[in-house]
Amino acid sequence: MSEGLERFGKTFPAGTVLFSEGDEGEEMYVIQSGRVQLTRNVRGRQAHLATLPPGEFFGEMAIVNNQPRSATATVLEDAHLLVIDARTFEAMVRGNSEIAMRFIKKMAGRVALANAQVEMLLLADLNHRLTHHLRYLAETQGVADGPGVRIDASVEELAAGVGAAPQQVAASLKRLEQARLISMELGTITVAEPGKLDQFLDFLDMKERFGA
User: Fold this and answer.
1) Number of folded domains that form the chain
2) How far apart are CA 62 and CA 84, in angstroms?
3) How far is CA 76 from CA 31, 81, 204, in A?
4) How far apart are CA 155 and CA 169, in angstroms?
5) Could you tell me the residue range of the domain that residue 12 belongs to?
6) E strand spans, 69-115
7) 61-112 pLDDT, tens per residue?
8) pTM score, two decimals?
């Protein structure tokens, strides 16, 4: 990041709510250190949308389209962020084509991801939502482990991601483990064979669609 932007830097302690869903937005943020979690209210619960690491930016849509915040942003660990207002952001985009292209590509990816997450969260069946979420995590964050894929996620994190209570998610995970689709250790889930998880998803899709 350009040294000229350092004047926009601010430090926020863990637990700080930078903005809440529905708030008016006048600033965007760039993470220089720390992590920020984005959540959205779904069916009366705070559903996890993303955990953003250093280098990511967020909050830009509120200043681009002048709409209320679509999510709540909470600092997970002490963070140093660049806080950029609409005028500065517009000047950055106008004056640097590389920044403009990075922004467009990032936004296109986020729109696709948001659409997929909304579709997943609207599924009525928890097993269906959880299996979709595990498949997504395996693709985007998983680490190869023999024929399987290891996911580092707690029951609480998975519960936030699918909009359900932790005890419900724990019971659903147990059923998936009994079916030998996953194995579990503390804070870790291993998808035994992603191909079998895909087959199970196909079955759940048919069940959801036709009410079988």
Assistant:
1) 2
2) 12
3) 12, 13, 34
4) 7
5) 3-121
6) 72-85
7) 888 777 889 889 999 999 999 998 888 888 877 777 776 777 777 766 666 5
8) 0.54
